[in-house]
Amino acid sequence: MIEFHLDERSGLSPYVQLVRQVRQALRLGVLREGDQLPTVKEVVALLAINPNTVLKAYRELEHEGLVAARPGVGTFVTATLAGTSLAAHGPLRQDLRRWLAKARKAGLDDDSIEALFMTTFRTSTREEDIA
Amino acid sequence: MIWLTWRQFRIPGVAVFAGLAVFAVILAFTGPALAHDYATGIAACTNESGGCDEFLRRFFRDYQNTFLAFAALVLLLPPLIGLFWGAPLIARELETGTHRLVWNQTVTRTRWLTVKLGLVGLAAMIAAALGSLAVTWWSSTIDQNAGRDQFARLSSVVFDARGIVPIGYAAFAFALGMTVGMLIRRTLPAMAVTLAAFAVIQIAMPTLVRPYLLPPTRATVEITPAILDGISLGAGRFIHLQAKAPDPGGWLLDSHTVDASGNAVEEIPLTASSGPCAPSGEPRESMAKCLVEINRLGYRQQLTYHAPTRFWPFQWIETAIYFALALGLTGFSFWWTRRRLS
Amino acid sequence: MTAVLQARGLGKRYGKRWALSDCTLDVPAGHVVGLVGPNGAGKTTLLNLAAGQLAPTAGSIEVLGGRPGSSAAQLAKVGFVAQDTPTYAGLTVAEHLRLGARLNPGWDAGLARGRIERLGLDPRQKAGKLSGGQRAQLALTLAIAKRPGLLILDEPIAALDPLARREFMQGLLEAAVEQELSVVLSSHLVSDLERACDHLIVLVESRVRVTGEVEELLATHHRLTGPRRDLDRLPADQQIVSASHTDRQSTLIIRTGAPVHDPAWTVSQVGLEDLVLAYMNSAAATDHRPLLEVQR
Fold first, then answer.
1. In whole angstroms, how large is the CA radius of gyration of chain B?
2. A102-123: per-residue pLDDT in tens?
3. Topology adopted by domain A8-77
């Protein structure tokens, strides 16, 4: 079962954060098809947020086709975002660790590493879009 | 609501009734002893010469302090009830803010006040009734044979502590305390104001109101030992008469000596150093000679008084007055609570 | 949607001072409504009027279809937790539950007991010996267990430490979901209400300044920053909530239904706290602002 959290300073509205966390969990395989999402009551009791916020997030996920609500029972995951790429996560994570070790040995601090990654990531995304 | 009223009223309620119980036990122990003392003493002195005057005087002196103390306890009961049962009834809730809690329950303000007032008010009247009953029983021997006017049943200290007026006082004190508490909204100041107001009324009643509850008897009578409390010497060294009510236990309101033409006089122009009123030989004969002379000169005593038979009528009327006051305050409180209180 | 609270020209006067004036509200059911405003604005007065603790001096108010405090049945519909969460100091927790059971025909004893157990309150503990947070939870339990349709809370967490605050709000909102309650709660801090409320009423100096769904308010209020200029040249559909100027720059908070096209302005989002502050400041500057109602 996924456990939600809220980051007050992220600038994102709570319901957007909830949707993102579900998507993230789906991508990482924490949530799989058939899993039940926490009930509205459970989320509200944990985060002390407005119930309509949770309802809105679940409705959006339903709209995206990721979950389905079964009246009287709960909300269940119907699709997955991980796909076949889940298998590739292990080796990719290892590669990342090696790269990080190299970057640190080269003397980059955390901010530099992050900046380097983000700019490279963005440029490559743009190149892909153009291509 | 009944449960809640009891739960809030528990400690002050039990305190007063426990005190009454202790009081009742003391009365129960000493009462028969008193009656026995009296009976044996009377039996002994009736056979003696000189009559029972001496015994009676000694008897009253022996029991005077206890008698007054017990009367005082009954007098204290209504203000105690007003202060500790009445004043906190509403004031405490307003002070602590719990009125916001209880008025949100599924009970209207009218029902809330009715139950609180009804139960505690009833307890107040019962407590006063028990206290009065107990003390009236204990004091009955003294009351019935009170030769001295200061113990007369109509006299202020005794009247207030007998019969049914204490019930009226308690009901009124309770209503007064509750109303004052409701208006002032703080318990301690409400207690102070209630005490002050109650004291004023309790002093005003016997002095200003009670004498006129029923028309007093006015009579101009011959000056005899029956109506004489004593003879003293006035400022000009002349005789001054102090009267008392004709029947034992009556209540003298006013008296003056009048001369033959009906004019009021302070003193009778006879001295104690010479003449008929000078003491000679046996005090009783001396007194009789003096009185004969005073009456011969045409002096009479004008008395305004209430006969002792007025005791019960006054009790009923005064109790009714206090109940009316209590009801008025109660009605006002209901109106205030429903309309104006927030 | 039915309105859980409807007020028309509602006013309350104490002596010469109007604690609340000309208050017109339509609060929809099924929401958690936040009533926010500075101290002395009239929040307590409004909530007390809604709970039937006070009677109005002017205007009318209807709660769940009835006049507040008018009858026992009406009192049963509303659960009220007053400021400072009053409880009987001399009564134990269990006795408070008994109070609720005796005085409320709709009392749910299982719900009350369950809540007390989950909260870890000792039933034999006197309410006067409880901590502030525990007392607040007890008062909340009493209000919830009578199964009302609307819960009204007057600054319930103002005096609580952060952990107690969080626990109180968790319990409150969980109960709102479970019992399908509408909730109106007040605070003088917007941060207390931000997560929990989806409908907002801003009360400043005895008047309602703005009211509406939080989403709608956030979508229709914008901050405009740009070079200093005259304000009467703004489009008519843009209402200025607050404005401040330096010698070179103007900053406005405006309310509008349409997008802002003027390229001279830099448009940015307004957070809820800043939005409320803008209304509080503008109320301080001008006295009688007309009521700004959300039109859908």
1. 26
2. 999 999 999 999 998 898 888 8
3. Arc Repressor Mutant, subunit A (1.10.10)
